[in-house]
Every structure is written in structure tokens, then in C-alpha cells.
Design brief:
The complex is a heterodimer of chains A (289) and B (327). With 289 residues, chain A is mostly helical. Chain A has 10 helices and 2 strands; from the N terminus they run H-H-H-H-E-E-H-H-H-H-H-H. In chain B, helix 2 crosses helix 11. The two termini of chain B are 16 Å apart. The chains are: A mainly alpha (289), B mainly alpha (327). At the A-B interface, helix 4, helix 8 and helix 10 of A face helix 5, helix 10 and helix 12 of B.
Chain lengths: 289, 327
């Protein structure tokens, strides 16, 4: 029989992870919802920026979470460049071409990492936040708590930006109708570029937070990509709230699979749920349109 | 398609078969080179079979290794535990893969899952099978070996040329199946579905039925070939359900050009040979260089030449005036 305290602890852990997943998936959801670009390389940006966070943290002896101050702006610029060179030519192309090109981009990123760092997992040796906090019988890792809190605040800020600012209005208007938006004086090209940069910058933030306790190898991206897409499918383009709720569901499902079956089968539980979701709720759980 | 043209295709296929049959002689029966040639050839089978679902039907299936793995593992386990010859086991494996394809494909096509969602669904199928096979009730975390016997009964040989010829036979059958589909009503229906699913449905094409037919044909070939793949690999385990390998097969199909048998064949042979060459020369210092090249090729093909290698063929045909239809 499984100890109920362990179950509760794992579920809380799943919730904390879910918030981080939501943060990473939000970028993907914004990009897909706005410009219909199918990005299969999304998770690989998490992987590359996790390596970058690791390098900066090792060389300057700072906690990986602090490296976000450098990696997030840098990845915003990288996102803009990738948009110009690779994404802009395939805007409006058929899905298969978009998938092919972004899978290609993912392969390039993955194997650059493999060539530079080889396959051994890397982690920061002395993270400042890697201590436990006891709440009754349950021990939580401080780093995960901080990551979850920062993710939640970032999600709120993006939600605020989307709903309350003029630029957010431009994003929503463009995603509602990209033919009419330019007639209203919105520079669609600029909105696309900035949102793509923002989406990639969010992966860098997620990666910096993840590196406070996690480890990175060249294949980390593949699992983040697939997970982000599962969250987007569940969220059904329902804005920040949909992504947040789906992220939490995925995190908890993963924790339950890990607790009740085995840790190595945890992804099977998430993806089986994804199958059922696609079959029975193809528009997602929180569909808005 | 006119009968004359079909005859020309079969003439080309005969020449190709003879040429491929001579390869072990050209390689001087060097076992290592024949192993590499057999590996390239088996990937040609996979990519040509993938062409049915990916090229004709236009469904971006990222789960080829799921069907290869199921079929291969079923045949291998039958041989290992019940002593059943793979000559029977491979058909059982093919049946198992087709069953899996039907179980996945029926609801998926019934609920109209397509494009990116189909790609994601199939990509996650590989991870699910990997996780399930990893459970102790199934294959566990150990490597499994085929019985240490040799002979035609086991399809395991002490040298590689026999295996090479078996794979060549499978490849020829796969190409013939492709040609048959391409020139049949099914082929035209599938291409109509690929170009515009709604229009095809409006014209009375049973979209679900033909997509499922394409998926099951492809899964059957994959499952049948699975045992040979395991013989080439030497072992099988949950690692057989390997996502990058699965993606690679689909990528070779895209680079070859969707719906082109010649493109699929050429891209598989060419890319796999380059891959093995790079792996044996600089693989130790720069691992994964070939995947980097695949990535760059994919981006370039996607942005500039969505028709893939086929575009190269058509250009060459026009140059040498081979294409008498006057393109």
C-alpha cells in the first residue's frame, strides 16, 4: 500500500512542476494561437537555454535562477532572429512543411548541444535553493517552490499584458483576424516577431528556473516540446488561464503515474490522457473558439 | 496511368533489383560493408512504406518505429519462447502491427484528428510504447537477445549477405505494393485526400476508410520487416521504440519528396549511407553530426524546395529529355 503522505507530497510536487510546464507552454500557445506556426522545436529552446544557464552559473558562480537576467533578454533577441530567418518564410505554409522545418531546427539545436556538451547530463553543483522545507510531514524542495512562484507571477504578468495593455490588444486583434488587424493600424509583422521573441524568452526563463534543481542533456528538449503541445491541446487556445489549468493537470497526471505505476512510465500516463483528450475533446478542455 | 508507362516502371525496378543484388559482390563480401548496405536497404523499406501514409495520404505519421517494434518484438518473442520460425512470426508480427494501427487509426480518423495533432498523437505513441515496454511485466529494462542459432529457419545467419538478400526481396515487394497503390483507385483517392480532404469527401470519397487502409498497409509492411530490423540490431528492448529513429524515417520521406517512390528510395539510401560514413569516421569526436545535417537539409528543403529530391529528378529528366510527356 502506498503511504498517503507520499501521494500528497507527489501531487504537490506535480502542481509545482505543472506551473513551470505552463510557463514554457504559454510561449508555444501564444505563437500557435497568433500566427498558426507549428513549432516542434519549442522544447529545444528550453534545452539550449538550460545549457546556457548552466555555463553562466558555473563561470560566474551564481545560482542558475539569477542567470535568467542574461538568458531571457538574449533569447528574446535569438527568437527575433529565428523568426526572421526561419519562421517568416514558412508563415501560411502547409502544416507538414512547418513541422518539417521546425523538426529540422530542433535536430540542429539538439546536435549542436550533443557536439558541444556530449550526452552526459549536466547540473549546477551547488544551487543555493536546494534545501527542503518541512510542512508537517511533507518536505518540499525550496527551488521548486521558487520556480513555481516565479512562473505564477510571470503567467499573471503575461495575462495582464494580454488583457490590459494596448500591445496585448494588438495581439488579440491579430489572432482574431489577421486580415482586418492591419487595416486598424496594427503592424502585424512586428506583432508576430515580438510574440515569437517573447515565446522563446519564456522558454529561457523556464530553463533558468528548472536548472536550480534539474539537469540538462541534449534530449531534454524533446520531452518539453511534446509536453508543451499536450498542454496547448488541452488548453485549446483558451488564453493564459487555459494554459495554466492544463499545465497543472499535466503536472499532477505525471506525478500520479510516477507514484502509482513507476517513474519510468509517468509519461505514458500523460500521453494516454492526451490520446483520450484528442479523441473526445479535440477543441481542448477550455476552448474559447 | 498507361500500361506502357507501368511497364517502364517495372523495367526500371528489374534493373534496380539486379543492380542491388550485385552490391555484395562489388563490396567483395566484406561483412562490415554488407551490414551497412543491409542497414541502408532496410531503411529504404521503411521510407518507401512510409510513403504510403505520409506521401500518398499526406498524414504526417511520426510512429514508424512503433509498428516496426511491435511486429519485430512479437516475431522475436515467438521464436525465443515458442520456437516458432520467423517465417510465420513475421506474418503474426505484421498482423499485430496492423491491429495496433487499426486500434489507433479508427478513432483517430473517426474524430478527424489531422495535421499537427496527428503528428503529435503518433509521436506520443512511440513514447507510450517505450514506457509500457519498459515495465517489468513486459520487456523490463534488460536487453533481449535472439537465440544463438543460425540458419534459414531462424533467418539468422553467420554472414550478412543472406540477410541482405532477404531485405532486398522485402524492398522489391514494398516497391511493387507502392506502385500498385499509386496506380489504383485507392492511390487517386489518397492523393485527393492529401490535396483537399473536404473536397474529396464532398466528391464521395470515404476519407476515413481510405486513410485507415493506407495506415494499415504501411503498418503491416513495417511490422513484417520488424524482425529483420531486430536481427540487424542484434538485440531488442524498450530502446527499440526510439523516438529519434522514428523521426528519422519520416524525415527521410519528406526530404525524398512526398508521394515519390524514387525520391523515398534515393533519400533513404543516400542519407543512411552518409550517416554510417560520418558515424564511422568522425562519429567519436562529433557525435550526431549526421542528425545536424538532416536538420539543415530539412530546413532548406522545407523553405526552398518542398518537393524534395523529386524536384532534382524532374529537373534532370527535363535536362536529358527523358520525360516524354513534355513537362
Amino acid at each position: 500500500m502506498i503511504d498517503p503522505i507520499i501521494v500528497v507530497a507527489n501531487i504537490i510536487d506535480g502542481i509545482l512542476m505543472g506551473l513551470l510546464y505552463a510557463l514554457v507552454a504559454l510561449g508555444l500557445s501564444l505563437i500557435f494561437g497568433l500566427m498558426d506556426i507549428i513549432n516542434f522545436a519549442h522544447g529545444d529552446f528550453v534545452m539550449i537555454s538550460a545549457y546556457l544557464a548552466w555555463i553562466v552559473a558555473i563561470n560566474f558562480m551564481v545560482d542558475p535562477s539569477v542567470t535568467a537576467l542574461i538568458t531571457v533578454p538574449l533569447f528574446f533577441v535569438i527568437g527575433l532572429a529565428i523568426y526572421k530567418v526561419i519562421i517568416e518564410p514558412i508563415l501560411g505554409a502547409e502544416p507538414l512543411i512547418q513541422i518539417a522545418v521546425t523538426v529540422g531546427l530542433g535536430f540542429v539545436l539538439q546536435n549542436i548541444a550533443l557536439a558541444m556538451f556530449h550526452a552526459e547530463p549536466r547540473s549546477y553543483p551547488a544551487p543555493a535553493l536546494n534545501f527542503g522545507i518541512n510542512i508537517g510531514p511533507i518536505t518540499l524542495v525550496a527551488a521548486k517552490l521558487v520556480a513555481a512562484a516565479v512562473s505564477l507571477v510571470s503567467l499573471f504578468l503575461i495575462h495582464y499584458m494580454l488583457t490590459k495593455t494596448k500591445f496585448g490588444l494588438a495581439i488579440r486583434a491579430t489572432s482574431a483576424n489577421r486580415m482586418v488587424a492591419p487595416l486598424m493600424g496594427i503592424n502585424v509583422g512586428k506583432v508576430y516577431a515580438v510574440v515569437f521573441g517573447l515565446g522563446i524568452a519564456l522558454t529561457a526563463l523556464g530553463a533558468a528556473l528548472y536548472m536550480t534543481w534539474g539537469q540538462v542533456d541534449p534530449y531534454l528538449g524533446a520531452s518539453f516540446s511534446l509536453l508543451s503541445w499536450v498542454i496547448v491541446a488541452m488548453g485549446g487556445l483558451g488564453g493564459v488561464v487555459g494554459v495554466l489549468a492544463s499545465g497543472l493537470i499535466v503536472g499532477v497526471l505525471e506525478a500520479l503515474g510516477s507514484t502509482f505505476i513507476t517513474p519510468s512510465a509517468r509519461m505514458a500516463v500523460v500521453y494516454l490522457a492526451f490520446f483520450l483528450l484528442l479523441w473526445f475533446r479535440p477543441r481542448g478542455l477550455f476552448a474559447r473558439r | 496511368m498507361a500500361g506502357r508507362e507501368l511497364r517502364r516502371y517495372f523495367a526500371t525496378l528489374t534493373i534496380l533489383t539486379v543492380a542491388l543484388a550485385l552490391v555484395p559482390f562489388v563490396l567483395g563480401f566484406n561483412q562490415y560493408y554488407i551490414l551497412l548496405a543491409a542497414t541502408s536497404l532496410i531503411f529504404a523499406v521503411f521510407v518507401v512504406a512510409w510513403n504510403i501514409i505520409g506521401g500518398y495520404a499526406g498524414q504526417l505519421d511520426l510512429a514508424p518505429i512503433a509498428y516496426v517494434g511491435i511486429g519485430g518484438i512479437v516475431a522475436a518473442q515467438l521464436l525465443k519462447y515458442y520456437g516458432i520460425t520467423p517465417w510465420i512470426g513475421m506474418f503474426v508480427g505484421a498482423g499485430a502491427s496492423m491491429l495496433l494501427a487499426a486500434a489507433i487509426g479508427y478513432p483517430t480518423f473517426r474524430f478527424g484528428i489531422k495535421e499537427v495533432w496527428y503528428a503529435l498523437l503518433t509521436a506520443s505513441l512511440v513514447v507510450i510504447l517505450n514506457n509500457i515496454a519498459h515495465l517489468p511485466q513486459f520487456l523490463g529494462s534488460l536487453d533481449h537477445y535472439l537465440p544463438a542459432r543460425t540458419g534459414w529457419y531462424y533467418l539468422i545467419f553467420s554472414d550478412y549477405q543472406n540477410l541482405y538478400y532477404v531485405i532486398l526481396a522485402v524492398l522489391v515487394v514494398t516497391i511493387v505494393i507502392n506502385l500498385k497503390i499509386s496506380n489504383s483507385k485507392t492511390g487517386y483517392y489518397l492523393r485527393a485526400i492529401r490535396e483537399d480532404e473536404l473536397a474529396a469527401e464532398a466528391l464521395g470519397v470515404d476519407v476515413r476508410k481510405y486513410k485507415l487502409k493506407a495506415l494499415m498497409t504501411y503498418a503491416g509492411i513495417m511490422g513484417f520487416t520488424g524482425y529483420l530490423y531486430i536481427v540487424l540490431q542484434g538485440t531488442y528492448s524498450y530502446h527499440t521504440f526510439d523516438s529519434p529513429t522514428s523521426l528519422t524515417i519520416a524525415i527521410m520521406g519528406i526530404i525524398g519528396g512526398l508521394g515519390s517512390i524514387a525520391g523515398a528510395f534515393t533519400s533513404a539510401i543516400f542519407l543512411k549511407t552518409v550517416e554510417e560514413y560520418l558515424r564511422s569516421t568522425i562519429g567519436a569526436t562529433i557525435p550526431g553530426l549526421y542528425l545536424l545535417i538532416y536538420g539543415i537539409l530539412l530546413i532548406v528543403v522545407g523553405i526552398f524546395k518542398p518537393e524534395g529530391i523529386t524536384a532534382l529528378f524532374n529537373w534532370a529528366k527535363k535536362k536529358i529529355g527523358f520525360d516524354r510527356r513534355g513537362a
